[in-house]
Amino acid sequence: MKLWVLRHGEAEPYGSRPDSERELTEHGRQEALKSAARLIGQPLTAIYASPYLRAQQTAQIVREALGFEPEIRTVEWLTPESDPDKVAEQLVSVSNVLLVSHNPLVGHLLSYLQHGAGYPPEKVSTAGLAELESPELLIGSMTLNSLKHP
């Protein structure tokens, strides 16, 4: 099982509009495109994304860059404050998927999947892309193959 976790690209600053409606900046769009290039040739079966606008835009950039046919699956369990344990519950029956989300969830989820509960979060910049792998989803036992930033 492979799992890719992508933090959205750089977004407008806080305060310009509600957090869920913040858009990607032009720089953020370019960051997302660079991360998408790292996914070329990977065996993706689905793209799941937070409903927040910047994550949706990031997922769409990746989808278009890859020529990925299936629609983006928008899910509430990928919002910034989601519980990594709840996310892991959703991943039990999937394989080779991309999750597009936000910090603090991204950092906490990467740490949780590798080490279990109680470890500090991974540091992930905007459009940071992590690849995890494991024969099956077991909390605390996934291997972080790479964590690349644009």
From TrEMBL:
Pfam families documented for this protein: His_Phos_1
SUPFAM superfamilies: Phosphoglycerate mutase-like
CDD domains associated with the record: HP_PGM_like
NCBIfam families per the UniProt record, alphabetical: sixA
Listed name of the protein: Phosphohistidine phosphatase SixA
Organism of provenance: Pseudomonas monsensis
Encoding gene, per UniProt annotation: sixA
